[in-house]
Amino acid sequence: MKNQRDKLHQYQKRITVITDRETDIAKECLARGDRSKALLALRRKKFQESLLAKTDAQLETLEQLTSNVEFALVQKDVVYGLQQGTAVLKQIHAEMGGIEHVEKLMGENEDARAYQREISEMLGGKMSNQDEDEVEDELEALEGQVQGVKQPDIVAYPTAPDTPVQAQGDGAKRKEGARVRAREEAQGQAAEPMLA
Q1: pTM for this structure?
Q2: Is residue 150 classed as helix, strand or coil in its secondary structure?
């Protein structure tokens, strides 16, 4: 179709050249005083112009047809892509085993968790608090080993101060101390450079 369009363009150019030549012939005939030959040349020119108009109409129809075919090819590609996507989704769903299979797995998982809870409750009821604490400590140590964190052997707790805490006097002293701290903070902030 594109070749046909190109041929029609070439034909239009030829007709344009012929009509220009017919106009020149008509002028030459009139210059020689041969009115009948000039009239014949103008009629041929008019016929060529009507062919040119028909060629324009055919060219427009051909271009519309070409556009329609190209759009249909794009639609075909889109439909093919949708078919392929649907086939892949069906394959994935088949590999998963469908909704029933997923529900079955979820049920089995819940059953396994319930069984584990029963075992934990049975073992927890037969152990003393000290045994339970030891099991928890051992679990934490194992978690540390698995994660690569070295657990200290002895836990060191901070010691409490030996001096008693002294109570502040009256409320006025506390307010004055708060004002002094606020002024110091304000001066410290004013001394720092401001960042944009």
Answers
A1: 0.38
A2: coil
What is the DSSP code string of 152-183?
PSSPPPPPPPSSPPPPP--HHHHHHHHHHHHH
Record the tokens describing residue 61, joined without a space: 């129809």
Nearest-angstrom CA–CA distance, 46 and 41: 9
How many other β-carbons are positioned within 10 Å of the β-carbon of residue 21? 14
Distance CA 120, CA 133 (A): 14
d(CA 48, CA 17): 10
Tokens of 131: 């045994």
pLDDT tens digits for range 132-175: 788 888 888 888 888 876 555 555 566 666 666 555 555 566 66
- In whole angstroms, how far apart are CA 40 and each of 11, 25, 36, 160? 22, 10, 6, 126
Cα–Cα distance between 162 and 154 in angstroms, integer? Answer: 23
List, in order, residues 6 or more apart from 180 with CB less than 8 Å away: none
Contact criterion met (CB below 8 Å) for 1 and 69 = yes
Length of the chain, in residues: 196
The one-letter amino acid at 111 = D
Half-sphere exposure of residue 194: CA atoms within 13 angstroms, side-chain side: 2
Per-residue tokens: 50: 């009507």
